[in-house]
Write a structure and sequence with these properties.
Layout lengths: L16 H5 L6 E6 L6 H8 L3 E7 L3 H12 L1 H14 L4 H15 L2 H10 L26 H15 L3 E4 L3 H5 L6 E5 L20 H14 L3 E8 L4 E2 L10 E9 L1 H5 L5 E8 L1 H7 L1 H10 L4 E4 L2
Parallel strand pairs: 1-2, 1-4, 2-3, 4-5
Antiparallel strand pairs: 5-6, 5-8, 7-8, 7-9
Length: 303
């Protein structure tokens, strides 16, 4: 099944979204993503008709304005992107710098879409003032407008009139979910938020996140958490506290792009954590069956 992907984003779960869906309940009333990013899991869920409604949230307000344009004003954002893409011809580098400055001044969604399509490795970077400061990939001009329009229109078809879009702190979202929802969380990995050019719009306090996970457990809210990972070169993130009582599943995510740039063949494995109420809903046997069916990329740890 071809799933639309209008927003290119480094760290997107596009490549493993269907593996994540293997741990979903059979029916989901509402899927909630507090750290939406490129919304890869939501798009995959909608394409497979696995949820009735969706809540996309991210603290990055310009990104959520872009999602609102894609879902509810697809023709307008596709037209605006096409205009920018054509205007750059013959002066790609200078035009990128111009649009980057204009985006940092206005936060217009079409400018962000153009920057994401053209920036190096689709990797967002922000400076200390919260301004987009990633450089362009001078080898390419970005997704062709015809392809982009198709991606936008298909994403709109899947999510229109069934998706709530907000730009709140994740805490506000988690305080408003219930046991009838399914929450998928892909927060910033530890170690990639700080520094001179952080990858994410803002940092999070991981100890606070742990407290929210405990609260979700106490309220019986089912959730999945993509939290850390590893490859042959390094491990990302410290382990979650054992008292949160989650089941960890490892999903093979392919070759590490960073290692490939260094001329090294290394493979990435991402951790997916399943909450107690989710395990209760889908059953421990379901996890074992998924692991056995896909043992080339998954292992599970039952506590």
């Amino acid at each position: 099944m071809r799933i639309p992907h209008p927003i290119p984003y480094q760290g997107s779960k596009r490549g493993i979204a269907e593996a994540i869906l293997a741990y979903f309940p059979q029916h989901v009333t509402r899927l909630v993503e507090p750290f939406a990013g490129s919304a890869a899991v939501t798009l995959a869920t909608a394409a497979h008709y696995r949820a009735d409604r969706f809540w996309l949230n991210d603290l990055n307000e310009p990104l959520m304005r872009l999602w609102d344009a894609i879902i509810y004003h697809p023709e307008q954002i596709a037209d605006a992107y096409e205009h920018l893409w054509k205007e750059q011809q013959g002066r790609e580098r200078q035009y990128y710098d111009l649009i980057r400055d204009e985006f940092n001044r206005t936060h217009r969604p079409e400018y962000l879409l153009y920057l994401l399509a053209r920036c190096v490795k689709a990797s967002v970077r922000y400076n200390a003032n919260g301004e987009f400061n990633q450089s362009p990939d001078n080898r390419r001009r970005g997704m062709h407008p015809i392809t982009m329009r198709r991606q936008i229109m298909e994403a709109s078809r899947l999510l229109r009139d069934k998706t709530l879009i907000t730009a709140l702190g994740y805490q506000s979202v988690l305080s408003d979910v219930s046991s009838n929802d399914l929450v998928y969380m892909d927060p910033p990995y530890q170690g990639v938020c700080a520094g001179r050019d952080p990858r994410y719009y803002t940092n999070i306090n991981h100890d606070d996140l742990y407290q929210w996970l405990r609260q979700l457990n106490a309220r019986g809210v089912p959730y999945l958490l993509s939290y850390d990972g590893r490859n042959d070169l390094r491990t990302y993130g410290r382990p979650l506290p054992a008292d949160i009582n989650l089941v960890r599943v490892e999903i093979y995510a392919g070759r590490s792009s960073q290692a490939t740039l260094l001329g090294i063949k290394a493979y990435t494995v991402e951790s997916l954590y399943l909450s107690p109420s989710l395990i209760e809903r889908i059953g421990a046997g379901r996890i074992e069956n998924v692991g056995n069916q896909h043992n080339q990329y998954a292992l599970f740890e039952l506590k």
